[in-house]
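Please complete every field before forwarding. Incomplete forms are returned to the sender.

SECTION A: IDENTIFIERS
Entry label: holo-200
Bound molecule: glutathione
Molecule representation: SMILES string

SECTION B: INPUTS
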Amino acid sequence: MAIKLFNSQTSMFCEKVRVVFAMKKVPYEVVDVRADERKSLLEYTNQRKVPTLNYNGECVIDSTVISARLEKDHPQNSIYPEGANNKGLCLAIEDWSDEVLIHANHAMRRADNPEAKQKAEAEWDSHFKTLDQMYTGKKFIFDNKMTIADISIFSELHYLYTAVKCDVPAQYKNVHGFLENMRQTLKLKSLADSFDAPSL
Ligand SMILES: N[C@@H](CCC(=O)N[C@@H](CS)C(=O)NCC(=O)O)C(=O)O
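SECTION C: PREDICTED COMPLEX
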């Protein structure tokens, strides 16, 4: 049985999962949902969201669930930090990134008048402050180990400065430092590149 990832190259949640696959060095096939306007995804799952996985015949939906499932079956190169306390914190930050930063991205993307733009910028500004504090004096949230919390945050920031076309302000030096650490760890030539490598 093969593993098939229903993927959209520009989706931040798909990028998150592609990084996990690469960390685990698990081979998979890609089904580009944009090629048939999600027809094959709808036929398979009766819903439209990506990432969706056909995992050796089992349907697994949602980047957090997919990542946890890959970790369970392929524990090498763990996506979580050591220890139960840190794992709980890591999962909470993953969820914050997936649910809160995505909201800020959508708000910025949909802002079609100066007032909405100002509000969206203020929302991101408050998150940049939080992130800049999180990454003070640290390579990753759990020191030198890149975890799913960093991967989720990176995917949202990547979407912000590529698809939404909104740069991270220069004053957030720790956020810029984190992005550079991610670029090096993911072996990206440029921070504009979409992560696509089969292994890390
Ligand atoms: N919580 C989900 C979010 C997935 C999601 O929102 N995917 C978007 C692409 S970034 C999507 O497929 N949207 C299409 C739709 O809702 O019709 C996850 O972590 O996988």
